[in-house]
Amino acid sequence: MKFRVTQEGMRIVDKAEKRIQAIMCGIFGVTFFFMAGMGTGLASNVKNPNEPNPISGHTISLEEITSADVMARVQMLRDTLELIRLEMGKPLVTPSDAIVTNVHSHEAYFQALTLYHKADRLALELTGSTGVPPEPISLSALAPLHIWKMVNASYIRILTIKEELGLKETIPERPADSATNLTEIGRAIVQANRQLNLLQERHFSPSDVSQQVLLASQYAKRLLNRFPTSNVTLENSPLVRGKQPADVFLRLVECYAILEEIAQQSRIPVLHLDLPAAHNVGISRQLYPSDVYDMATLLVSDLAFFYTQLKTHDSLKPIPYPGRTFPSLVYQQATVLLHQLKSLEQLVTNDPEWLSR
Fold first, then answer.
1. What's the CA gap between 110 and 104, in Å, rounded?
2. What is the DSSP letter of 272?
3. Beta-bridge partners for 273
4. Distances 123 to 5, 162, 163 between C-alpha atoms, Å
5. Contacts of 343 (CB under 8 A, 6+ apart)
6. pLDDT in tens, 175-215
7. What is the pTM of this model?
8. Would you list the domain boundaries of the chain?
9. 3-state DSSP: the chain helix, strand, coil percent, rounded to 5?
10. Please, which residues have CB within 8 angstroms of residue 208's CB and are 6 or more apart in sequence?
11. Under a CB-based contact definition with an 8 Å cutoff, are residues 74 and 183 in contact?
12. What gap in Å lies between CA 46 and CA 131, rounded to an integer?
């Protein structure tokens, strides 16, 4: 009898944990969506007693924080993360291929936003606590200070983990090259994000990817609505079973290729995605939903930035947590997004001044 009660208790606990995970993921998706939909992101101004000032000696201000300060803080976060990785006995992430160049502020910022959420999720797993949500900032007014604040908010969450594990080593901040650019910062943040993926017990799932793809699709729909006489009709894409995360990744790469063309015609600054290199990543190494998630958030970052360029724009409706989702359904959603972007490209080709209307 005691054994049966114990087993039943375990089932109840497991069910409760899954429910909590669904709630947390849903809250995360809605929060991210709300902030992005308003043309804002997250930034922290919460002072932690263990939070060091920039090694450069710069004050934490709009006038003084530079890209080098951002890189120095990213590197200190990664060094601290490495200490935690060794303590946890987790694998070291392999270096990723450089598939992007010409990164802009909003793209680096969204990667830093993803870093914050991943760090906060790991801290929740290991300490049972969540971080203080940083304050909003307009995507159109981004500067190195705002990226630094987001990275710093992530670093504070990593410090919480370090303290929980009883790690006493001091990790100093090292000066970064004054010529550091946003592309280098973006790549460094992506590596930190990929390492965090390997430390989490509950990894990002296809459901998390689905929320971001649906968010990107909703942005695309709003942009298409700027052409009221276009009569764009989109057919539902068939569900193709048996798809893997790599298939979704490659479909999102196709989406970004179209988005980059739209950006060039519209004179909107976005990064350059090396299509052969990205395609090689999709076919040459094992990809996980967390890798696909990063590509999906890249699309969201640029589509959100597009949306803020409109003369008038309303907030978008929250994307509910989709529940259990598999890659085949996300692939179908990404295919719908691809068709939306192709339609938008055709319209923009005929009206490249569309954003000024």
1. 10
2. E
3. 100
4. 32, 9, 11
5. 224, 230, 232, 234
6. 999 999 999 999 999 999 999 999 998 888 999 999 999 99
7. 0.82
8. 2-356
9. 60, 0, 35
10. 25, 28, 29, 289, 293
11. no
12. 10
